[in-house]
Amino acid sequence: MTGRHDLSDGEWALIAPLLPNKPRGVARVDDRRVINGIFYILRTGAPWRDLPERYGPRTTVYNRYNRWAKQGVWLRVFERLRQMSPDSLHLIDSSIVRAHQHAAGGKRGVRITPSVARAGD
Hints:
- The chain is mainly alpha-helical.
- It has helices spanning 9-15, 31-44, 58-70, 73-84; strands at 91-93, 116-118.
C-alpha cells in the first residue's frame, strides 16, 4: 500500500542517485520507502512515533533522516530539484515551521518575524 503523496517513479529517479549507498551487515530498509516516510512526517507534522508501519521502522526512518542531514544529502536533493525546475522553488519562509518558545531560549510574548531568502542565495 502506498500513500497518496508518495514519490512518483520520476521523482524517485531524480533523488535516488543522490543518496548514500553504503550497505552495512544488515539488509537495509528500502530507501524509497524511508524517504516517503520522512516526507510523510515533514508534510503532516506528526510525531515520529505515529509514522505508519508501511514506511518501515520509525527508528530507521528517523535515524536515516538525521544521518543524511549531517552528510548534506538534503542540501544535494534540494539543489538537484532546483536545477531541474528553477521556477518551482523561489523562497524558503521560516513562518512555515514554528519552534516551541523554549527551543531557542526565547521569552514569552516575543514576536517572531518570518525571514525570506532566495533559494539560490
